[in-house]
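Fold sample X.
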Amino acid sequence: MPDHSHHHIDRNWQRRASCRGTDTEVFFSPDGERGRVRAQREHTAKLICQDCPVLTECRAHALTAESHGIWGGMSESERARHTRRTRHAAARPRERVPASNSSPLRIRTPTA
C-alpha cells in the first residue's frame, strides 16, 4: 500500500458517505468468497454507492490509495482495469490532426 503519510489528506468527505455506519463486510470480501455469493455482495455494495453524495471523492481516493474492497462504486478488478487503461491511454502517442479549415501543406521544389 502506498505511503501517503507525508500528504495532508482531507477525508471529511467520508463523514458524508452513504456507507457510513454500514457493516464493512458488505464492501470487503471474506477469504475464499467466489462466484454468485461475491457478485451479490458486490452488487449490494454498489447499490449503496450509486447515489452517494461523495461518490466522486471516494472513487478518486480509491484509484490512488485502496487495493481492496468496493470503493467509489468500483471493485478491485474494476479499479485495476481503469488504472491500466488510463496508463495505456497516457502512454499512447497522440495523433496530430490538421485543423478542419486548413489544407495540407504542399512543398514544391523549383523545376528547371
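Fold sample Y, listed below.
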Amino acid sequence: MLAQDWEPVVLRKPKPKAQDLRDPKAVNRALRSGGQVQTVKKSDAGVNKRAAATVVSARKLDEAAEPAALGRVAAEGAA
C-alpha cells in the first residue's frame, strides 16, 4: 500500500538583492503599497564644493605679493 506524507512544507522567497531594492520601479511599488521607504540625502548632493575651493585658492595665489617659487636651501647641512 502507498503511504502519504502529511508533513507541512514551507516555501520561502529569497530576500531581494540591494540593487533590486534601489530600482525606481521597486521604490514606486513600495510607495504605492504603503511599504517603508528610507531616503538618505548625500552629503554633497548638487553642490560642487571642490571646484569652488579651488577657485578661492587660485584667487588667493594671484593676489599674493610674494613670488610663488620657493628659495633653494644650501646643501651644506644635508650630509
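Sample Y note: The chain has a mean pLDDT of 76.
Also: The CA atoms of residues 34 and 54 lie 45 Å apart.
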